[in-house]
Fold each of these.
Amino acid sequence: MPVQRKKKRKLNYKKIKALIAVVALIVVGYMAFKHGRQVIKADAEAESVQPHLNDSLTNAMSSYAGTEKMDEIIEKYLKRWEVNGAQLAVSRNDSLVFAKGYGWAEKEKGQRMEPSNIMRIASVSKLVTAVGIMKLQEMGKVRLADHVFGPRGILNDTAYTNAIQDTKYLDITVEQLLRHQAGFTNYAGDPMFSTRYIMMQNHLSTPPTNPELLRIVLKKRHLSYQPGQGQKYCNIGYMLLSLIIEKRSGMSYEAFMQKYVLRPAGCYDFHIAGNYYKDRHPREVKYYMHKEAEPIEEFNNSGRMVVKCYGENNIPHLLGAGAWCASAAELCHFISAIDGDPHYPDILSPKSVQAMTEEMPNHKFSLGWNFTPKDGPWIRTGTLSGTSALVMKFPDNQCWVFLTNTSTWKGQGFAKDTKELFERLRKEFGAELKPLPVVW
């Protein structure tokens, strides 16, 4: 009996020790969880109290002696083009020296355009996406030489692989998508802007998701040339780059870009745009069409007739091809973080910046930029129904950004004329603009 009692006590001690260990683990886990919650909360609070550029900008900051003539030139330019509202932002040596709104953010409500308003930036979004790819490469999660499709490709889901009919798709690389050299053309319509027709052709009752759209393209469209052997501007390539970012990061495209690209660059007011007036973000403008524009059938095949800038296209599904909205000033700030200029720290390595801005022969596209000539301005343009955008980074470290909330009757010709406007304003006023008292 004594022996049995002794064994029983030992057994009880073991149970007590095990119970203590479990309790300790629970306590430690709870403390770690609590600490984690506190860290997350502290990070969120720190971000919320950190001054953001758009929070402090006003037209008054860029209204001082010497800018009246500049204002007059810009206002005449907008009147000639029948543009309701626009923004101009200028940085020099990575410091903001001018940021001003002109005309109306929303004419019907009497809301003047301010430099803190945001608007769709169209294909300037491609530059943002290219930076995301370069960031992923620096993180070791993707290489520009990686293949996109096939069993060893990045988008190697069987749903994609089994849909491929044209084996040339297996040769597409990440870099070819960035440079519009993947073999895509718009001979049957740009897939990103043909939602209604794709729905009808494939007997769909709802607009396809991006993965569904990709499967349709892989199954029904052949590439027009061998990847790398030609060049044709096409939006679907940058939608694919957005899917690559999601696949390799394990995050949504927008979440990855916000966490690893935009916030590190000091840009807190970039957002994926919506389709309709009711979907606007805080500070977002109203969009307008030029007078000759006629209503068009809604992208989702509803049969409704809509204003082109509010329902012609499925804007959020453009993702990195054209869905971002921002202010001209924050775009200037973004450029300062990817331009190799030492005045403001870059979020990319010098190697990545050099790769993105290398001058390409034969007018080939740069990575994200349209063109980056060695002795001329780097250029990125963007156009959507209801908006236009132009970014130019000059060799003398001036960056000029112009955004509008109105379509023009001349389309791409507006960008050409705006470049000429930049040259005139730079010559007359560029050296006289003063750094603004804002958080940069």
Note: Residues 7 and 13 are 10 Å apart (CA to CA).
Amino acid sequence: MDLKMAKIITVTNQKGGVGKTTTCATICGCLSELGKSVLAIDLDPQGNLSFSLGAETGGAYTMYNALKHEVTLYDIIQHTEICDIAPANITLSACELELTSVGREHILKEQIDTIIADYDYILIDTPPALSVLTINAYVASDWLIIPMIPEILSLQGFAQLKETIQAIKKYYNKSLEVRGILLNQYNPRLILTKEVEELAVIIAEQLETEVFTQKIATSVVVAEAPAHGKTVTKYAPRSKSAKEWTTATREMLGI
């Protein structure tokens, strides 16, 4: 019998406020609706992905416990209406100081390897910083998806991101691929949007990737959905946003 091996995808950008968590949660929701088995891994100490997907983080085991080898990844997985999730909370912020052993970059990959045959897709949400958590995600991943918003500040830090990706590919994960850049909060009527989009294409070329054709427009339902513990496609299935996200997910993952 052939074992399925999950495609592991990290949503990343060291700039905050670009829609990483929304992107991660919504892709998970879209994939679940397409009949795929999905695990979301929250690697951000803020725990926003866990909240968005309806996970319990108070008295439960979290990614902190798994990365510290106190429990296995399997032990912390929760089943929600949207998908399975390995949750996180503020305790995860201690990992930067506490994970000091040789091979610390591979801890997440080793944990994922134990459950990789159980899922079609594993999505990882990362903190807005190039920390040991982010590096663990890159080492474990097949693909990176980079959300950004059409603002000049959103372009800052891409040089460092490029250097980090190149270093990971050289030393830890030769097969790591930047799948593409997703433009969030997109308003084609603004001149600045067009200018940033042109710069994003240049950045994409430097990262040997592309800017996805499907853009995600600014929308109130995107902001409202997490408060209801739902993804956009569940909260407002007939909305323009839901259609955009479904199309974007199919494009990003080649479905």
Note: The beta strands are 7-11, 38-42, 78-79, 84-86, 121-125, 143-148, 177-183.
Amino acid sequence: MSRDQKFFDMYSLVIGILAVIALVIFVVAAKMTDLTQAVYTRDAAEYQAAVQERIRPVGRVYLPGEEHEAEAPTVETPAEPEPVATAMSGPQVYNTACLACHGAGIGGAPVLGDASQWVDRIAQGNDVLQQHAISGYTGSAGYMPPKGGRMDLSDGEIEAAVDYMVSESQ
């Protein structure tokens, strides 16, 4: 019988401890409710206004004979930001537009850094080279499309790219 009594005593002790813990939790919860109830009350005007705004109907129904003037729709057009015009440097233009042909010599394009291919062209002068690059050129060696096919580039950017390629190929 002593085993049963020992089990019953241990069981009673565990149940008692759990009951005390539950009572402590209940008291703390009740105290917290009392402390925070003044902050969050359903009778407060702010709370009621917020609820009314959330459950407000989207539209209204008017019966025949009830006239109500509709509000004119408003269209807000966002202001477009001013485009920032940043000119690319010669190396940037070369890497984005010229490299495709002048990097591998496609279509008779002189390869950047190969002085033998650039000697005759450089002898014509930078003004002629820049004009050919901007307007396009068809020669015996091949075809140079206007602005290298990149019509979005400015004349100044193309001139900077030509100056860069000439300086790298002398």
Note: The longest helix spans residues 2-37.
